[in-house]
Amino acid sequence: MIGYGVNFRRGLTSLTAAMGVLLVANFGAAAQDHRQNAPGAFDFYVLSLSWSPSFCEAARERGNTGRSTQAQCSGRPYSFVVHGLWPQYERGYPEYCKRPSPRLDRNVMRGMLDLMPAPGLVYNEWDKHGTCSGLGARGYFETVRKARASVKIPEEYLDLASPKTVTPGEVEEAFIKANPGLSAAAIAVRCDSRRLGEVRICMNKDLQFRACEQVNRSACRRNQIVMPPMRGG
Fold this sequence. Notes:
Blueprint: H1 2-30, E1 44-51, H2 52-62, H3 67-73, E2 80-88, H4 106-110, H5 119-128, H6 137-149, E3 164-166, H7 168-178, E4 187-191, E5 196-203, H8 213-217, E6 225-227
Antiparallel strand pairs: 1-2, 1-5, 3-6, 4-5
């Protein structure tokens, strides 16, 4: 009877552990949208605008001298550049929706270098995010261009000649003031340990501003951040 009791308790413990693993697995699955990675099946876009001087300064600190870094940081001075236009679910996001992804025509890539000043960035954004849009490559990058054109960069950030200390709220307010219809619920500022990283703006599929709770949850929480000046400043 003692042996039976020990075996029973061991069996119960194993069953409990297995159920715990199953619950965790089910919760993880529930956290993913049921449309996961189906091209064209998403709820809205995030337009991510990267503050190029921060990217270049961080790259120099890491000793990153790769081609993409040189393309963005050794040419003409940039302010905000397009990091990407990302399809999103209300909870989570799709990525790499076609494997292998359709080959991106070099001419399409070259046509985006004024907004996304690194060939590697353009190729990566197509593979990871563009394939989830449900559009062909030309259609996707035309949408990227339209999304960028719909956002006005605040005048004070167009030609920043010296380092500027700001709060995340001040950056948001500047964008909201410059873009009628944009609300605090539709924009989020991202940062690293001390610098402005990106401004992310949520848009519906018609490229109208819309609220996005999950994007705001990942916003910068620092009291102050630095905007390094544009190259040559």
